[in-house]
Amino acid sequence: PPTGPLVGRRVVVTAGGTREPIDPVRFIGNRSSGKMGTSIAEACARRGARVDLVTTASGLPVPPGVRALHVDTALEMREAVRGLTADADAIVKAAAVADFRPASYHDQKLKKEADGLAEVVLTRNPDILAELGRERGPEGPLLVGFAAETDLEEERGREKLHDKGIDLIVINRVDMADAGFGVDTNRALLLTAQGGRTEVPLTTKSRLAEVLCNELEHLLAERDRG
Ligand code: PMT
Known about the structure:
By secondary structure, the protein is α/β, with parallel strands linked by helices. The longest helix has 21 residues, at 205-225. Helix 4 (154-163) links the parallel strand 9 (142-149) and strand 10. It contains 5 helices and 12 strands. Helix content is 28%, strand content 28%. The strands form 3 sheets. An 8-stranded mixed sheet has the order 5-4-1-6-9-10-11-12, with helices on both faces. Bound molecules: ligand PMT. This is Coenzyme A biosynthesis bifunctional protein CoaBC. Keywords: Decarboxylase, Flavoprotein, FMN, Ligase, Lyase, Magnesium, Metal-binding, Multifunctional enzyme. Residues 6-217 form the DNA/pantothenate metabolism flavoprotein C-terminal domain. CTP binds at residues 99, 109, 126-129, 146, 160, 164.
């Protein structure tokens, strides 16, 4: 049986970049590999939590003790996360969700010239995290967001924390070769709704996941005390 400080907790983690299909061969996507989210799922499971990983990263191994649900699009990710919300103690949204998707899907491959591929009309995707923040009651799960930024600008991070109604935001750099998308390392600043602030200089994504788990344990314990 699992042991560790997160035994009895259920954690939902999202990882990877959503892919929004245009036709059977093309999609709009982003450069998220799923490494950050998968590291967080692994760290939570190692501490004894029951972990559901909602991920677009089909190529990454699923860590021991983690249940993976594979999705492609933002709408699929939203459905999967919503289905797990009622039982969750914490939801960690490390995924890079496409803000827009093509307004219509063509089930035949579009022809370069004839089908107007040069102009793809987009429509807004729902903000999964902001929805969770709006809809949760007092018994609802702890909500953790990530922010992909080109600096660790604190003020904007605090704004996102409050606008989305979440408990913790991890601002990470995506403009440096050793942080953000794709690589095994990261640089981050963690801000909590209660004013907590933890800077994490260059480190591995696994180590950043451990720092995040420490923070999660602390926030969950605080919430238990009311
Ligand atoms: O996967 P890797 O290659 O390891 O890279 C990791 C990462 C850089 C992708 C990751 O650490 C990260 O920063 N993820 C969040 C990227 C992002 O989408 O940031 P954002 O500022 O657009 O979104 C803020 C938060 O809202 C995120 O928690 C996001 O999951 C959530 N969101 C955003 C849009 C949307 N429609 N729905 C959401 O839930």
